[in-house]
Amino acid sequence: MSKDWWRESAKGLPELITETPGPKSKVMHVNTARYMKGLSGQVKLFPVCFEEGSGIMLKDVDGNRYLDFSSGIYVTSLGHCHPKVSEAVSYWANKLMNAHDFTTPVKEKLMEKMAGILPGNLNAIQLYSDGTAAVEAAIRAARAITNKHEFISAYRDFHGKTLGAVSCAQMYRGETYSYGPTRAAGFYMVPRPDPYRPLWTKTNGTIDTDAYINFYETFIKEGTVGNVAAFVLEPAQGWAGSIFPPEDFFPKLKQLCDKYKILLYDDEVLAGMGRTGEWLTLNHWGVIPDIVTFGKSFGNGFPVTALVVKEEYGEALEKISASSSYGGNPMACAAALASIEVIEEEDILENVRTVGDFFMKRLNKMKEEHPIIGDVKGKGFLLGIELVKDKITKEPFEQAGTLVYQKAFRKGLAWIPAGHILRMSPPLIMDEYYANKGMDIIEEAITEVEKEFGY
Ligand SMILES: Cc1ncc(COP(=O)(O)O)c(C=O)c1O
Predict the structure, then answer these.
(1) Residue at 77 is within a domain
(2) Are residues 339 and 356 in the same domain?
(3) 149: domain range?
(4) In which band, very low, low, confident or very high, does the pLDDT at 402 lie, cut at 50, 70 and 90?
(5) In this structure, is residue 74 part of a structural domain?
(6) Is 132 in the pocket of ligand 1 (CB under 6 A)?
(7) Same domain? 268 vs 164
(8) Which of 57, 242, 247, 424 is the most exposed place for a label (fewest CB within 10 A)?
(9) What confidence score (pLDDT) does residue 169 get?
(10) Does the pLDDT value for residue 313 go beyond 80?
(11) Residue 383 CA to ligand 1 centre (angstroms)
(12) Average pLDDT in the 73-98 region?
């Protein structure tokens, strides 16, 4: 199959034939929201109703065609309805949908494929059907491996919303997410380095990674009962706004973990499987974690996720059991296997690196030219623009974030808001031409907002 399969449906993007959201979208959204509660801010701010997707194109019920800068929500990374993935799912949907956790031919192939692409001896695997379930399994696995029960995570990390996962995740204040006192006992959080907003800096003003690591060491000694099973971290903070740590952070953290016999659990549900130009984001920094989880892009839209630990910890996975109703069903294995094969066959990692560099050049130029862009960040196709009221004070500009999101969407860019940090996660098949088009729309929206606020 040609790797240009998506170009036909991308022609002329974006193409708007009504105001957006259009009249049919509005009615369908109202009908749905009458019953469906707790919709995300993304939907509430732009209540469009989609009915079709192909490659980098999303079509709404009014016939408007959007350029996709969201991949669903970091999910359809190879483009909507990649023919190879859809065909693989449909084959098994017609042959065998579920066989509990028995071996199937497609599961056998997927296991071999995963063990082949992952670094080091990361090859003891379990399959689940959402990211949160894989995170929960990772927490159980860390306990089973170490016989310890404490966990350290970081402010503004996100790992899911069930009790174990949310205990490692940022707690939300205010009316949006008032879960009550949900952090389970033994789960702690520490600050992690954000190069734009460093808590500790060296005398030359750059971020001081060692100060963070030293604080963690003190915390392990003073703030825990000495039973820390794992550090639980996203390799780069996705939900928080594509925040990447300094280059030396993970290598130094791994050394600290090894010193205290603490596992490094790398939650790659959002960033893994190619989004940053590597199978594993930690590959960028030469670090092999002890535990990894994959989700989102893993099945390109089909719900399939994975927990992977180092071979020597495989025995512990026996203790937590691999069985779940849907985990590793034949359709799920087919989607994951086909997605990995597509990444290899279409040279997706190389595209992500090349077009990712182009994105960063364009973003850096925008930062120089716009008074409300405080920082731009990213690697590969995991990108962010941080809006501030003032470049010196760095005061977050939430209102501008909301307006830019809505304006760009209205102009035909389907994407993801996150308060004052605009997040971008285009499908990994995108070329420079469409990358540039999307950035033009965003820049236009930012310029309009700047004018409205008198900059
Ligand atoms: C890093 C990370 N871990 C876990 C999850 C939870 O995944 P899911 O929504 O599939 O349950 C997410 C979801 O956004 C995530 O970003």
Answers:
(1) no
(2) no
(3) 83-345
(4) very high
(5) no
(6) yes
(7) yes
(8) 247
(9) 86
(10) yes
(11) 17
(12) 98
**Final residue belonging to a domain, choices 345, 365, 400:** 345
143 and 128 assigned to the same domain: yes
Q: Which of 139, 160, 161 is nearest to 230 (CA)?
A: 139
Three-class secondary structure of residue 159 per DSSP? coil
Read off the pLDDT of each residue in 197-212 and give the average, rounded to a whole number. 96
Quick one: what percent of the chain has pLDDT higher than 90? 92
The answer to whether 158 and 239 have CB atoms below 8 angstroms apart is: yes
CB 158 near ligand 1, within 6 Å: yes
Given 3-state DSSP classes, what are the helix, strand and coil percentages for the chain, each rounded to the nearest 5? 40, 20, 40
Of all protein residues, whose CA lies closest to atom 8 belonging to ligand 1?
131
Q: State how far the Cα of 50 lies from the Cα of 34, in Å rounded to an integer.
A: 18
Question: Are 263 and 116 in a shared domain?
Answer: yes
- Residue 34 sits in the same domain as residue 180: no
Instruction: Answer whether 234 contacts ligand 1 (Cβ < 6 A).
Output: yes
301 has pLDDT over 60: yes
* pLDDT number for residue 98: 97
Regarding whether 92 and 219 lie in a shared domain, the answer is yes
CB-based burial of residue 278 (10 Å sphere; 0-12 exposed, 13-18 middle, 19+ buried)?
buried
Instruction: With a cut of 60, say whether residue 328 has pLDDT above it.
Output: yes
Minimal-distance CA residue to ligand 1 atom 9? 131
Is 275 a pocket residue for ligand 1 (Cβ < 6 Å)? no
Is residue 137 lining ligand 1, measured as CB closer than 6 Å?
no
The count of structural domains within the chain is: 2
For 147-165, what is the mean pLDDT? 94
Cα separation, 19 vs 10, in Å, equals 20
pLDDT at 172 over 90: no
Specify if 28 maps to a domain. yes
How does DSSP classify residue 278? Answer: S
Mean predicted lDDT score pLDDT of the chain:
95
Read off the pLDDT band of 365 (50, 70, 90).
very high
The residue to mutate among 167, 292, 296, having the most atoms of ligand 1 within 8 angstroms of its beta carbon, is: 296
The CATH number given to whatever domain includes residue 61 is 3.90.1150.10
What does the longest C-alpha to C-alpha distance in the chain come to? 64
CA distances to 133, 135, 151, 158, 313 from 165, rounded to whole Å, are 8, 6, 11, 8, 21
Q: Is 128 in the pocket of ligand 1 (CB under 6 A)?
A: no
The residue from 321, 345, 369 where one domain ends is 345
Distance CA 350, CA 138 (A): 30
